Amino acid sequence: MEVGADNSKMPSDERDYALKPLDFKAIAERSAEAEAQRPTWSGRLDFILASVGYAVGLGNVWRFPYLCYSSGGGAFMIPYLTMVILCGIPLLYMEFAIGQYSRLGPVHAFAKICPLFKGVGLATVVISFVFSTYYNVLMSWALFYLFNSFKAVLPWTSCNNTWNAVGNCSSGFPGNNTHLQSASQQFFDHRLLEKTSGIEEAGGLRWELFGYLFISWVIVYLCIFKGVKSTGKVVYFTAVFPYFILFALLINNVQLPGAKNGILYFVTPVWSKLFEVKVWVHAAAQVFNSIGIAFGSMISMASYNKFNNNILRDVLIVSFTNSFTSILAGFVIFSAIGYMAHVHNLPVDNIATDGPGLVFVVYPEVLSTMPFYQLWAPLFFFMLLCLGLDSQFATVEVAITFIKDEFGPVVLRFLKREELLTLAVCIVCFILGLPHVTKGGIYVFQLMDHYTAVVSLVFLAFFEVVAVCWIFGVPRISLMIERMQGKTPNIYFRLCWLLLCPMLVLIILISSIAQYTPAHYGKYKYPLWAEWVGWGVSLVSIVWIPLGAIQEMYNNKGSFLEVISTKVVDPQTNTLPLGVTE
After folding, report:
1. Which residues of the sequence carry a binding annotation for Na(+) (predicted)?
2. Which residues are 115's β-sheet partners?
3. CA-CA distance, 3 to 497, in Å (whole number)?
4. 56 a known binding residue?
5. Cβ atoms of 92 and 464 closer than 8 Å
6. What integer is the mean pLDDT of 84-96?
7. What is the distance between the alpha carbons of residues 256 and 481, in angstroms, rounded to a whole number?
8. Which DSSP string corresponds to 432-498?
């Protein structure tokens, strides 16, 4: 029912569930009891830095700059910032509110706020768990490059190595000579990956990468094994350090010849692009994926906040920092690419690319030609490591939070200590990540990333927004926030939740379906059986949404409309069934 409705004519048993006048003293007492049972961040800055570290990841460095220049340059800022305001900030505010109010992970929070879509919560856990199994592979690549960057001569600068195919190797960028590969590309393909011809040929483990993947998981475990208490301290370094490197690289890069041309290529507006629908869809998708909506990580991290923490302030800080970092990274990357184009006398668009190829092929080549490359190369790859670790902490924490919320007493009776639970999760993720460090692992990685981070996430995000904004309802979200903050959200947030956010996510979903293309890696096309495996990976997370709805309707006997209107999403039984109740 609506906030402020007249409850006096209700039967007494229904009035028990209705919204009552707020007793903030009682709320504060109950929230204090809840906080005593659940650990909290040591300070407000811990949560902010952890959230910033999660939102600001490798995608800010390798995805946004390329997307910006290919979608209208400086003109892309208009759709991008519009989507930040209309979609990113309101949805992040919504997730923070759910986590902080319920003091539960995404599974139990969604089971309480919208039982019909309780599968959405479980789906967020599954997608985060799958994501964490392969995302750490990028950290193993960063470690590989980091250790190789300490050599007197950077190994990706020359064609005179045992792994080079000398006949088609170029010590610089080959430009339009399509039969040639750069030495940096061959280092990535033949030294780092020892890449096979396709996913059909696994080729056995790359033992070097196996070792680096193991080290990556050891680092992750040591940073999170004490829960938010240890993570909250680590992010003071991992979330802040990359900015020192980005600014240092920017100052260095803008002094290089050709840097101006690269920056102009990045920011010069192409106003005609604003009339293309796909540019606006790309902007919305970038905001959505970058902030990390629908992964469950923001809900999990917010669940460790104190009840009255100012989440609106945190939302604005995280959103602004995320967008600022993307733009800053664009200047860093394109000033370097402009310099590289100048050195090799090539157009900028012959060098610009996106994805892992930008940071593991193009930028290493750029670093090798810079003055004092012995300093910049290790710092750059250490920065990548920090950016990736922040995001990895948050995704692993989603699975750990779910296990503690659902099976806590049972698991702790068996494992005795929470540190062992964290260790068990890390070991399982490490084992599931091994296919990615085989010689054919790059094909597995690309397949998993396409069907997890592209296909599954969009479906999941749509159902999350529908469950919270339309079924649970904007009045209840507003009341949750009023109880925590002392005032209701303004009309801007209520309008976004009610209309704009669901519509934008629906447009992204429809566009993703209409523009769907099968996964590919460069010119390699996956066989049909691999495509089916990819769809199976997508279904592993998505399937929990219909299964949860079917179970809820089965448990609440009655006609379909009855179940939908009263027993599953009835306002009287689902008004505020969360951590702090009247």
Report:
1. 53, 55-56, 60, 290, 322, 387, 390-391
2. none
3. 16
4. yes
5. no
6. 95
7. 50
8. HTGGGGBTTHHHHHHHHHIIIIIIIHHHHHHHHHIIIIIIIIHHHHHHHHHHHHSS---HHHHHIII
- What are the C-alpha distances in Å from 3 to residues 21, 133, 208, 274, 479? 10, 43, 60, 40, 8
> 60 labelled as ligand-binding?
yes
Backbone torsions φ then ψ of 521, nearest 5 degrees: -125, 105
The tokens describing 378, both together, are 């290790």
HSE-CB for 24 with a 13 A CA cutoff: 10
Q: How many CB atoms lie within 10 A of CB 271?
A: 11
Q: Say what percent of the chain tops pLDDT 90.
A: 47
Count of other CB atoms within 10 angstroms of residue 37: 7
Tokens representing residue 215 in the block = 């080290």
> Is 309 annotated in some ligand binding site?
no
- Give the mean pLDDT of 68-82: 87
**Structure confidence at residue 68 as a pLDDT band (50, 70, 90):** confident
109 annotated to a ligand binding site: no
Q: Is 53 annotated as a binding residue?
A: yes
One-character DSSP codes across 271-339: GGGGG-HHHHHHHHHHHHHHHTTTSSHHHHHHTTS-TT--HHHHHHHHHHHHHHHHHHHHHHHHHHHHH
Instruction: Say if CB 462 and CB 509 are below 8 A apart.
Output: yes
Is 57 assigned a ligand-binding role in the annotation?
no
328 CB-near residues (< 8 Å, 6+ apart): 246, 247, 250
The number of helix segments (H) and strand segments (E) in the chain equals 29, 4
Residue type for position 126: V
Residue 183 has pLDDT above 90, yes or no: no
